[in-house]
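$ run holo --ligand "2-amino-3-ketobutyric acid" --emit tokens
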Amino acid sequence: MGKKLVIGSSGQIGVELIESLSTIFGASQVIASDIKPSKEIKTQGVDYISLDVLNKSKLLKVIKEHNISEVYLLAAMLSALAEKKIESAWNLNMQGLFNVLDLAKEKHINKVFWPSSIAVFGPTSPKINTPQSTLLEPSTVYGISKMAGERWCEYYFLKYGVDVRSLRYPGIISYKSPPGGGTTDYAIEIFHAAINNQVYKSFISENVSLPMLYMNDAIQATVEIMNVDRKKLTVNSSYNISAMSFNPKELTKEIQRIFPDFRISYEIDFRNEIALSWPSIIDDSIARNDWNWNPAYNLRKTTLEMINGISKQLAN
Ligand code: AKB
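-- output --
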């Protein structure tokens, strides 16, 4: 068994995935890589390599030199930023995936994790209990790249036997490392405002609900799907997963249980349009049946964890 390479290790999910993989498999079994290092990874005893996933020859060199057997490809441009940088988003999100899938096809690696997103759904997809398989007409650059990526993952699995596994991440809430360029980022920013006694100016309108996951559940799901017997997986593209759904109004109410004076105001921008095109509640029953997906964090527990976590960070 070779080592695990996380590409995009300095991002919101990368930092916490590195922490979890090194706890489970040992720091020597994990390699972090990104175009810029993060402080957090330096302290975890995990080797860091500077790597741009678009540089396929360097990627191959790293895979060979470090005896990599699994790649977690987290480097991507998220929904809001991708609307402003169409070409580079498409290039990073698609070419990055092809580089990794091709190296798996050529048997340089055995297994790949690639995250998709609820952004694959669009205005014509059902909004409530959005099924695993339904009309996919995404209206964002990011969503189009994720939808195409899902099709390519399934194609590489069926045609070339590439063992690529994927989850459609909803909004992921965490405090250890900031998110960047997403539409669901509001659900993180709001906690920082509340703890700092500020009014939060939401760019999403009060009644727009989106599916969400607390980071611990997202990491758990990622580790689980990568380690389950492939024969149990009935979805070869990407699984719907979620733990809760809420809108800014409901999140504000929950935060006000702890900070009664907390206030939100609304200054809607283009990200509201993106949020409106996504599902409110998704049906993740196939993940629950296939590999016992069972999230632990609801809105109340997430709120407590966020407030405790950010407060501790500030105190340090
Ligand atoms: C985003 O908001 O772009 C991401 C996502 C839902 O994939 N968090």
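-- notes --
The two ends are 39 Å apart (CA to CA).
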